[in-house]
UniProtKB/TrEMBL annotation:
<dbReference type="InterPro" id="IPR008255">
    <property type="entry name" value="Pyr_nucl-diS_OxRdtase_2_AS"/>
</dbReference>
<feature type="domain" description="FAD/NAD(P)-binding">
    <location>
        <begin position="5"/>
        <end position="297"/>
    </location>
</feature>
<keyword id="KW-0560">Oxidoreductase</keyword>
<dbReference type="GO" id="GO:0005737">
    <property type="term" value="C:cytoplasm"/>
</dbReference>
<comment type="similarity">
    <text>Belongs to the class-II pyridine nucleotide-disulfide oxidoreductase family.</text>
</comment>
<keyword id="KW-0521">NADP</keyword>
<dbReference type="GO" id="GO:0019430">
    <property type="term" value="P:removal of superoxide radicals"/>
</dbReference>
<keyword id="KW-0285">Flavoprotein</keyword>
<dbReference type="InterPro" id="IPR005982">
    <property type="entry name" value="Thioredox_Rdtase"/>
</dbReference>
<keyword id="KW-0676">Redox-active center</keyword>
<dbReference type="GO" id="GO:0004791">
    <property type="term" value="F:thioredoxin-disulfide reductase (NADPH) activity"/>
</dbReference>
<dbReference type="InterPro" id="IPR023753">
    <property type="entry name" value="FAD/NAD-binding_dom"/>
</dbReference>
<dbReference type="InterPro" id="IPR050097">
    <property type="entry name" value="Ferredoxin-NADP_redctase_2"/>
</dbReference>
<comment type="subunit">
    <text>Homodimer.</text>
</comment>
<keyword id="KW-0274">FAD</keyword>
<protein>
    <recommendedName>
        <fullName>Thioredoxin reductase</fullName>
        <ecNumber>1.8.1.9</ecNumber>
    </recommendedName>
</protein>
<dbReference type="InterPro" id="IPR036188">
    <property type="entry name" value="FAD/NAD-bd_sf"/>
</dbReference>
Amino acid sequence: MSEIYDVIIVGQGPAGLAAGIYASRDRRKTLMLEKEKPGGQIVTTAEVANYPGSIENATGPSLIARMVDQAKSFGAEGKIDPIVDVELEGEIKVLKGEKDEYKAKSIVIATGANPRQIGCPGEKELTGRGVSYCATCDAAFFEDMEVYVVGGGDTAVEEAIYLTKFARKVTIIHRRDELRAAKSIQEKAFNNEKIHFMWDSVVEEIKGDGIVESMVVKNVKTGELTEIVADEEDGTFGIFVFIGFIPATKLFEGKVEMKDGYIVTDEDMRTNIPGVFAAGDCRVKSLRQVVTATADGAIAAVQAGKYIDALEGTEYGK
């Protein structure tokens, strides 16, 4: 008979690791599963300056390593095994991996979300080295420099406005000749003297030796290619990509309630399935940051513990 865990956490990003810390510290038999390696999006971040207490030049990988060690120090197990199917109904949940099958009284889904990428040469290599998907995380690195924002929706324009607090010039690159953002947001952008626009344009290539040094932009109407080179004194510029996110929730489609691919929870991280919780970027929420992910994970683990206790006879939620 398969071992039955109290809590199984799917995902070892900040949300999943925080859940692992809280669950195992509460003496719950805890397993943290990951398909490749711990970390999530934060492992691409060269410096974590906005996470409370990160004052020792913490990087994404170093912060994750600390979280992993902390969870394991309390007894949480960690395994690498891509989950391919789940059975969430009933008191015992079943997760089927490529290597093994796992059972638990409660599940915390912390699979995260991935920024939609441009898909051009150089993007992957220079992510975290000038290419960013988070203005809140990385805007301060481009103080008084030039930055480019790729996208034309609400998020792209709002983040462009935010970036003007730091950059001396912000240029929005959009594949159409008008923005898709709400008119009220557009007005703010058009009235901001720091914001400029490159219409009918897409990024074809990003170049640089360890840091962004130039990019090639194509006019989709004329086909003309233009190479934008970093200011000689700056040596680099920022490229902020805001063309959407892809929640990593396909595995749970039809199993839990979702909205636009994100898992719906209440403020206690409970999904519509008893004993199943969601935390971090994979759930519907207004701010996707390390600090909110870890908070979600902590709440989910505590509520999972309460759910398990309630299985002994007290109706959950009463």
